[in-house]
Design a protein that fits this description.
The protein has 695 residues and is mainly beta. Helices cover 4% and strands 54% of the residues. The longest helix is centred in the first third of the chain and has 12 residues, at 2-13. Residues 4-59 have low confidence and may be disordered.
Length: 695
Amino acid sequence: MKKILFIAILILLCGSLPAQNTLTQYGQYGTSATGQDGNRYDRNGNPIDTTAVIDANTVPVGLNSWKIDERFGEMTAVPVDTLQHGFQNSNDTGGPTGHYTYLGNLGSPRISHVFFERKESSQFFFTDPYDFTVRKPSDIIYTNTKSPFTNLTYFKQGDGRYGEERFKAYFAVNVNKRMGFGFDIDYTYGRGKYDSQSTALFNGNLFAYYHGDKYDMHFSFINDNLKVAENGGITDDRYITNPLEMAEGNRTYETYSIPTNLSNIWNHNTGYHAFLTHRYNLGFYRDEATENDTITKEVFVPVTSFIHTVNVDINRRKYISYDTSQNEKYFEHNYLGKDSLDVTKNFSIKNTVGIALREGFNKWAKAGLTVFASFEHRNFTLTDTITGTPGRRIPTSHKENVLSIGGQLIKSQGKTLHYNVLGEIAMIGEDAGQFSVEGQGDLNFRLFNDTVRLEANAYIKNLNPTFYYRHFHSKHYWWDNDLSKIMRTRIEGKLSIDRWRTQLKAGVENITNYTYLDNTSVKYTNNDVVSYKNNMAVSQYSGSIQVFSATLRQDFKLGILHLDNEITYQKTSNATVLPLPELVLYHDLYLQFGLAKNVLQIEMGADMRYFTQYYAPDYAPAIGQFYLQNPDTRYKLGGYPLINGYINLHLKRTRIFVQMYNLLQRTGEKSYFLAPHYPLNPRILKVGLSWNFFD
C-alpha cells in the first residue's frame, strides 16, 4: 500500500515523455538511429519526427534524449519512442522477439537462449536474471525538453485473482536549457497462474544533469525491490503434457490447482545504486556558421577533459523459507538448521578518474585519447556457522580491493568511419592480472543509391570469476572455490542494408575455463523407488568451448502487408556444459494501415516465437539462478511454436494494444515449457495503454 501511495503522489506531481522501451533493438537498422542527412529513421526507413506528437499551439516544441557511458559519461543519442510497431511485445518477459527462457510469470527470472546476448555476471549476480525490469546507470534515459513531459503506461493480463499488471511512469523537466531532472518508476505485479509463483518488482530512479561549456554532470539514484515467490516447478509435467491422464478421465486441473514442489519460499532482493559522472573541460571559443546560414555564432571547443565517475552499490538478498519438513525432503543440505532466514549483503564503491584529449578540436585531431585509473572497494557479508554449535551462526565479512588502469582511443565524429578501442588491466588486488581489450567500429558508404553499414566488434578478456562463484554460504548451498581466470575471445561482424530491410550478423567466440553452476543433485533409492535431493556446485571446464552464431533479419512489405523475420543459428562445441538451441526463430505477419486521414494508425496480425529442442537450463529456487539440468533426469525442451495474435492502435498521444497470448496452447510432448517443470501461462488476453501528457 505504501508503494501504491508513493506512485499516486508521483503521478500528481508530474506532467511526460515516453521512456525508451526494450523495442529499440528492433526499431532500426544498425546501431545508430541517425542517417547521413541528420534525420532519424524507423525500421522501415521512414523519417521519425520526434516532436510530431506535440501540440505546437500550446506547447513549445523541442526535445532530445540520450544515455551515458558508465565509465566516462559519454553521451549516446537515443530516439524518443513513440512508434506503435511492436508495442504489444514491450511487456513480454520473453523479450520482444522471444529470445529468453523464463518461468512463465510476468517479471520472473530469465536467461537468453541466444548465447551472444548473455551478459557477464555482475558482482551481485542475484539480480542478473531480473534484467527485464532492473536497470543500470547506462540504461537511464536523460531528456532535454522545452516543456515538462509525462508518460503513463499500464499493462494488464488475465483476471484479477490470477492476473498480471505493470505500471510505468516517466517524467522529465528542464530548469533551464542546460539543466534538467526527472524520474521514472516501474511496478510489476504478477500474481501467477500457478501456485506460489507471484512476482512483486518495484524499480525507480531519480536523475539529473547539467550541460555547460566547461562543466558537465550526470547523476542517477536507482532503487530495486524484488520479491519473488518460489514454487520449484510443478510436481509432474503430465499435468500439462497429458492432462486427461492426470485427471483420470475427469475434468482437467485448473492451473492454480496443479501441485508444485515448494511453497512458503521467497527470494527478496533490495538494492540502492548512486551514480555520478562529471567532467571539467579546457578549451577555447571560436565562431562557426551553420550549414544553411551565413550568420556565425560563438561555440566552445573542448580540448582536454578531466573526468571523475563514482558508482556506489548497496545490495541485500534475503532467502526466506518456513517449511522445515519440506526443506529436508527437497534439499540435500540444510546448513542453517531450522532457521527460516538466510541473508547475504554486498557493498561496493568504485571511483574512476581520467584525462581525455578530445576529438575534433582541430583538423589534425582525428580521434580522441583517454587514459584512466579505477579503484574499487567491495565488501561481501556471508553466513558462517560456529563449529560445534549447531544452529548458531555469525556474519563474516569478505573485503576485496582492485586498482586498474587503462586507455581508450575513439573516433565518433564524421559520417563514414567510427571506432572505439578500450583496454584495461587490473594491477593490484583481488583481480590482479585480469585484463580486457575491446574494439568496435563501423564503416558507412553509398552503394547503388543505398546506405550500407559494416560493423565489427571484437574482444579478448581474461576475467576473474565474480565473488559468488568463488564463495557462497547459504541455507542449502555452500562453497569456497579456488577458480582459474576465464579467457574469452570473440569476433563479430554485421552488415546492414536499409533499403533491402536486411541485417546479417555473424560471430564466433572461444572460451577457456568456462565457469558455470552445475547440478549435483543426490540420488536415493528406497524400495526400488528412485528420488533426488537438490544440490548445486560451481564447476569449471578447463578445455576450450567454441560458439558460432549467425542472425539474419529480413523484412518484406507488399502494400499494407508486412512480414518481419529473424532467424538465429548457433552451434556450441560442448552441448553438455553449454547447451544451446541450434535455431531461434521469430516471424511477425501483420497489416498496417491508417483510418480517418491516417489519424488512427492500425496494426493487426500474429507473431510466432520458436526454438529447436535442447537441454534447456533448469532453475534453482534456493539461489534464484539458472543451472544445468540433472544429468540423470534431463530432457529436452523446445519445438513449441508460441503464437500471439494482436491489434495495435495509435491515436495522437495514445497507444493501445489487445493481444491473445499463446493461441495454440497445445498439449503432448511439445507443450508450452521454456524451463524444466515451469510451464508458460495458458491462453490469456493482454491489454496495454501508453498515454503521453504535455504541460
